[in-house]
Specification:
heterodimer, A: 1015 residues, alpha+beta, 26 helices, 39 strands, globular, B: 290 residues, Uridine Diphospho-n-acetylenolpyruvylglucosamine Reductase, domain 2, Enolase-like, domain 1, 3 domains, five-stranded antiparallel β-sheet, 25% strand
Chain lengths: 1015, 290
Amino acid sequence: MPTLHLTVNGAPHTLDVPPGRFLAEVLRYDLGLTGTKIGCNEAECGACTVIVNGRSVDSCIFPAFKAQGAEVLTIEGVAGAWQKQQSPISNLQSQPDGDQRLETGDLHPLQEAFVTHGATQCGFCTPGFIMQSKTLLDRTDNPTDDEIKHCLKDTACRCTGYAAIISSIKAAGEKMRTGHLPPPVLPEAEAPLEQIGKPLPRPDAVAKVTGQAMYADDYHFDGMLYGATLRSEHPHARILAIDASAALAMPGVQRVLTYQDVPGEIRHGLVEYDWPAFAGGPFPARYVGDPIALVVADSNEQAHDALKAIRVTYEVLPAVTDPVQARQPDAPVLHPDRPKGNLLKHIQVSHGDVAAGFAAADMIIDHTYRTPRTEHAFLEPECSVAVPAGWHDPRHGAHEKLTVYVGSQIPYADRHQVARCLGLPEEAVRVKGTVMGGGFGGKEDIAGQVHAALAAQLTGRPVKVLYSREESLRFHPKRHATLIRMRTGATRDGVITAVQAELYGDSGAYASLGDKVMTRATTHATGPYTVGSAQIDCYAMYTNNAPCGAFRGFGVTQSAFAVESNMDMLAAALGMDPVELRRKNGMQVGTMTATGQVLKDSVGLMECLDKVETEIRQIGIPQSPISNLQSLWSPVRVGSKIYAWGLAAGYKNTGLGGGAPDKAEAEVEVYTDGHAQIRTSSAEMGQNLIGVLAACTAEELGLPFRQVDVLVMDTDLSPDGGPTTASRQTYLSGNAARLAARSMRERIQGVLAEKFDVPPDVITFHEGLAYVDEGRLAQVKRENGEQRLEIERLGDYAPNRPIPQSPNLQSPISNLSARTIPFAEAVKTMIDEGRSPKLRYEYWAPKTQPLGTGGDMHFAFSYAVHAALVSVDVETGEVAVHNVVSAHDVGRAINLLSLTGQIEGGVVMGIGNALTEHYIEDNGVPWTRHLGQYKMPGIKHMPAMTSFVVENATAGGPYGAKGVGEISSIPISPAITIAIHNAVGVRCLALPIDQDALLLAMQQGVTELDRRWGD
Amino acid sequence: MQAFDYARVQSVGEAVDLLRQESQARVLAGGTDLIVGLREQRVHTPLVVDVKAIPELRELAFDSTDGLHIGAAVPCHRIYNDATLAAAYPGLIDAVKLIGGVQIQGRASLGGNLCNASPAADSIPALIAHAAVCIIAGSQGERHLPVAEFCTAPGKTALQPGELLVALQLPPPAPGFGAAYLRFTPRNEMDIAVVGAGVALQLAADGETVAAARIALGAVAPKPLFVPEAAAAMIGRPLTAATIAEAAEHARAAARPIDDMRGTARYRRHLAGVLTRRALEIAQQRAGIK
C-alpha cells in the first residue's frame, strides 16, 4: 500500500492507504476526524468541504493522494488556527474533549456567529459551511450578499433556509473588523420570562460548529463489521431463490443474511406490521427499495463489492403504480392478507348537508390538483450501528444489552420493532440516539436498525449499516403524492356553504404512517375556515411505488395547496379581495371545524392576516418603477419579468389527536453541584427541542440556562417522549419537562419551607439561588394577619450570614434576603432530608376524540399566513421568489432564535415544494437516484424573508406554546402559485411548477395548467 | 467503487507513454467528473493518471499579441480571478464561474470539462465562441484542433489513444470585441444546462458594423454545436436589434435537441433563441464599453 504524508490541522501524519481512497475517508475513518461529513459522496452538497493548501475542496471526491504533502485544515482545526492567529498562546487545549458547552470566546468568529445567530440546526452541513465561508472571510472581512451566495452556491442546508447562515457570515466579518459580534436581528415578540422567549443558543451549538457532535457514522468500534443491503430490482416480484455462495467466497465477507435468518416476526411497521425486514419466501418485493439480503463483511467496500455476486431469481409480478388504478377491482394486489385489497384506509369527514350547502351557493369552484412524491433530503444519510450484548469497547465502554446507535425520530418504536424482529423482549434492546442530521419525518420508520441489530446478534460483533445517498433516496418513505378534487361553494357575499373533496393518497408499498398522514390531509381539507357543510372522502392506497409516510406538514401541505387555490379562485369569481374572503370565513375562537370541534382558544389567524397584509402593502413591488399599485395583487412588468404578490393561509394540528392517547414522560434530576438534567426520549433532529426542554427546566428551577443538561433518545436512560412528529414535542415534552421541573421545585420548596419555617410558595428560585422572598412573605403574612411572628422567625436564621452572590449576575438580586442559599445547597438539604433528587413526570395531553365522533379532534392548532412576491419571465417561464412575508401564531415563542430558524427553514423548504422538488419514479423505478437530480433550494433561491410571530397563547401549552415545525412550510406553496396567477394569469394546479409548460400556457393563452413536470 | 491504480506523472512524455501502454487509463485533472463516474460505475478504468503536476498543463499566460494560453489542468478559479482575463475573455469567464460550486472550481479545469465531452458542458460553447484551439500531444508530436471539432459524440472526443490534451489557445481580443455565455436550467442553479449559448462579436472600427461573430450552443445536440450560419447573418451588418433577432432565429433553427427529464425539445429550441439573443445583447454592451 502506498504511503501518504500530509499535515492536518498542523499535525503531520504518515499512513498507508489504498490508492482508491478519498480524503474524506482518510480524515474520518483513518484519522478519526469525524467533523468532516459525507452527505452525498458526489460533490453535490458540500458537507465534506475542507481546506487543502488554502483552497476549499469537496473532500469526498478528492483522491487522498492528491493531498500528498499538503496542509489540510478541517473543522476541528479552525478554532485552533484562529487562536494561533490572534495570540501565540491558545487556551483551547485546556477545554475538555467533547464538552458541549465550550466557551464561544475560544472559537473562530464564524463558529461563534453560527452559534449565536442560530445558523446551525441539525449541524450536519455546518462544518462544510464554516470551511467554505472561511475561504471567503480569509479574502474579505466585509463580504456582500452576492459574494456570500456565490461562495456557497453548491453548499446545501436543509434546515435553516440559509438566512441565518448569511447573517452569521456577515456578523463574523464584523467581529473580525471591529472585535464585536453583532446580535441576530429577530422578530418582535412578547417580553421574555427568565428563559422562555429568549434567543438562547442551542445547547449543542458549540459541539456542532467545532465538529465534536457525534452522528451515527462517527461512531467506530474495534472489531466492527459493515453491512450492505441488496435491494429489489423490480417494483413487484416474488423472490424464488437467493444464491449467495459466490458472495460468501469473496474476501472479507462474513455472513449473508436473508429472511430465513430473522428469528422473530419478519414484518415491522409503525402502525401496521406490513413491512418485511427482508423480502423473500412468503413476502414478495413490493418496491425497488425492498431489502432482499444483507452482506456483512470486514469493510464497507467489501460488503458493497459482494452485493454484485449475489444471484437472485425473481418471478416478476404485475405492478400498480397509480393510486387511482390501484383501487380498481382488477389491479394487482400488494398485500393479499389485507381485507380491502390495495385500500389502506378510506377516511371520511362529514359535516352538515353538502347537497343543501351547494344548493345555497351562488358560486362553485371545482378543480383537481396534483402534488408529487417529494424527498426529505436530510443531509445525513441513515446509519445504524449495533453492538452486541456483552461487548466492551475501549472508547464507548461496556454494552450490557444489544445496543443500537441511531439518529431516529422515535427511539422507543425502534426498540419495539428491533426486539420484535429479533424475538427478544424489549428490555433486552437499548436504542441510543446519536446526534441526528435532519429528519423532517423521514427518520420515523425502520431503516437499518433491524439489519444492524440482527447482524450484530448473529456475528457477535459490532455492525455498522450506513446508507449511501442513492440508497437513502431509493429506500425511505417520501411525502405522499396526491390527487385532490376539490369543490368549494359560496354565497354571493362570500360565505362558504359547502366543501366537497375527494383525495387519493399514494402510500406506496407499505403503510408506514400513510393512514395518519392522509387522515390529516382529509381533516384539514377545509382549510382554516368555518364552512357550512363538508363531505370529504380520502383513499390512502397501496401501490408499488416507494412507500410514503411522514414529511413536515403531514398531508396538510398537500390539501392546503388545493384549499387555498380554490379560495383564491373563489375570491376572483366573486370579485372579492382574497384577504377579505379569508377574513370572512376564517376560524376564530368559538367557531367550529369540519370535524365538529369548537375552537376554545388560541386562534390567531386574523392577526396573522392583518400583519402580512400590512407588511406587503409596505413593501409593494420594490422592482417596480410605479409606487402606487392598483391593488395589492396587481402585476408589474419590468423587462421580461412580471412581478406579483400572492397570499395563502394555513393551519396545522399540534399533537397526535384523533383519540390517540398522547403523552410524554420526562425525568428531572438535580445534583449537589447545582445543575440539573432533564431526560426524555423525544428526538432532537435539529429543531432544538433540547433548547426548549432546557429552557422549560431552567425556568421552573430558577437555574441559569447553561446549568441544565439535556439527555434525549436513550431508551435505557430517558423515558418515552413519544414520537417526534405532528409538531408535538414543544407541547408534549415541553410540558413534561416543565411539569417535572415544577414538581421538583415543589419538592425542594417543601424541604426549604420546613427549614426556614415559611409557607412553601414564598421560596423562590432565581439565577441558581433559592431564597425566601421576604417581600412576598410579608405580604402573605399581612394577608394572614401574622405580621407579629416575623421577627421571631427571622431570628431562627443567622442574621449575620453574608448574602450569596448570584454566579451569573454582576450585582446581587435586589430582593434577596438573609435566607438565601445556592441551588446546590438546596439540593443537598433535600437529599439530607431523604427526598430523591430524581423525579419522573408523565404528562398526558388533553383528551381528543376520534374522527367522526365530533368533539375535539385536536387539543391545539397553529395558524400561519404567507405571502410571496414572485416574478415570471415571459420569455423563459422561469419563476423566482423574491420576498416572503409570513406570520405564525405559535401560542408562545419559547426560543425566538430557534423559532425563527423553524420559520425560515420551513419557508424555503416550501419554495422547493412549489418550484423544484419531485422524487421521480417511472413505473415504480426511481429516476431520481442522486442528490444532484433532486432539486432542493440552494442559497441563491433564498428570498428576502420577513417573519412575524403571533403569540395567541393556548391554555394547555407550556407557557402557552403550540407547534411550529410543520405550519411554516404549509401556506407557502399556494402563495407562490397564486402569485404566479396574479402575475401571468395561469393557474398552476399541479406541483412542482413546470416552467416549460407554464411558458407554453402563457404563449397559447391557456389559463389552467395541470400537467406536472416529468409527466 | 472498483479499485484502481493512481499515477501522478511529471511530464507530458510520461503521461503519453502511460496512456499508450494502458488504453483504458483515464486522465485525472480536477477529477470532478471522473471520480463521480467511477463511483457510479459509469466509468471503468484500471489506472488513473493524475496530470496536475505537469508544468505545461498548469501554465496560464496572456499577452496582447499571442492571446491566452491555458494549460489543460488549470483550475477554473485561476481563470476567473484574473482581472485582465475577465476583461479580455468575458464569455469564457461567464462559463467558468458557472462550472460547479466554488469547491469544484478550485479543481475543475477546462481540459477536464472539454475531455468529458458532455453535450451540456458550460465551457465548450464559450470556448468555441472565443475561437479556442486545442493543443494535443501524442507519441507522434503535437497537433492543433479547433475546440469546435474536438467533441465527436456524448462522452467522445477526437483524442486518439495515447494522446493528451495539453492546453488551449485563444486569440487575443481586439478593440470592439465582446462575448458572453448564458445558460438556462429549468429548476436549479446546481443542475446541468438545459440550454447554453456562447457568443462573441467583433465590431468594426465604426463601432457599429459586425466584423466577425461566433455563436455556439450547448445541450441542444449530441455535442456542443457551432452555428456559423447564425454568425453569418450578422457579419457586415450594423448590430441592431433586428440583426440580433435574426441571428437568434438561426440559432433556434439550428438547435436539434431531444426530450428528456430536464426539458422538452420544443422548450430547448425556444430557449436556444432567447438565450442567443440575450447573450448577444450582453456581448454588444461589452463590445461597446471597450
